[in-house]
């Protein structure tokens, strides 16, 4: 926006606004990490400040910023395939040198002094109980803590968990009589409203009734 949004009337020519200074500081700080910043300019700019960022930011561990003028490349009188190739080359041309710099600076895999955070396990998947299926009451033993493995009544079992290989893995009571394009099977009542297979998560495009 040429400073029209972020530049205050109190900021003189040749001086940086607080937002511009914070942006430069953030780019400098990012050079302590194995990160490559690629900024793509779309529109007529002006892009003078972006080119300064690309060439003149001081005090970085390595050159981690690359500016690419998308509009200028796409407006060239050359075939579209060459425009796309030039854009990809301009965006990625500094990545090898940046990667080599992160290796020389030993930034990859570097341990930092941040406190260790325990990552909670993902929630148990919950599947919507299709209409027509019998409901199985879920029981939970007392004292079960958050994150411990639980059996969810509406979650389908894998075939190895089901004693009868011909039993629907969703309701566990009706026989399998509906096959999907992926090869998995359920009963017709459970499978008629499903959008994705509950076992492999593939979109259902084909249903075959089994007799």
Automatic annotation (TrEMBL):
Q: Where is this region: Disordered?
A: 126-162
Domain of life, source organism: Eukaryota
GO terms for MF: zinc ion binding
| Gene3D superfamilies according to UniProt | Zinc/RING finger domain, C3HC4 (zinc finger)
Q: Where is the RING-type domain?
A: 168-201
Q: Which Pfam families match?
A: Copine (PF07002), zf-C3HC4_3 (PF13920)
**PANTHER family recorded:** COPINE FAMILY PROTEIN 1, OS08G0494300 PROTEIN
Indicate what this protein is called per its UniProt record: Putative Zn-finger protein (Putative ring protein) (Putative vwa protein)
Origin species: Triticum aestivum (Wheat)
Q: What is the lineage of its organism?
A: Eukaryota, Viridiplantae, Streptophyta, Embryophyta, Tracheophyta
């Amino acid at each position: 926006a040429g400073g029209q949004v972020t530049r205050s009337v109190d900021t003189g020519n040749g001086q940086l606004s607080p937002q511009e200074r914070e942006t430069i500081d953030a780019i400098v700080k990012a050079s302590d990490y194995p990160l490559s910043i690629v900024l793509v300019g779309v529109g007529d700019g002006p892009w003078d400040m972006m080119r300064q960022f690309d060439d003149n930011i001081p005090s970085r561990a390595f050159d981690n910023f690359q500016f690419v003028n998308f509009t200028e490349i796409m407006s060239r009188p050359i075939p579209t395939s060459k425009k796309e190739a030039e854009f990809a080359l301009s965006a990625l041309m500094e990545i090898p040198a940046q990667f080599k710099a992160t290796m020389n600076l030993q930034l990859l895999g570097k341990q930092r002094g941040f406190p260790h955070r325990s990552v909670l396990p993902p929630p148990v998947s919950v599947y919507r109980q299709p209409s027509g299926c019998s409901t199985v009451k879920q029981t939970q033993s007392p004292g079960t803590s958050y994150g411990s493995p639980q059996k969810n009544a509406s979650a389908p079992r894998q075939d190895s968990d089901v004693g009868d290989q011909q039993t629907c893995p969703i309701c566990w009571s009706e026989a399998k009589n509906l096959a999907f394009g992926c090869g998995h099977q359920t009963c017709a009542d459970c499978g008629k409203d499903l959008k994705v297979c509950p076992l492999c998560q593939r979109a259902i495009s084909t249903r075959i009734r089994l007799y």
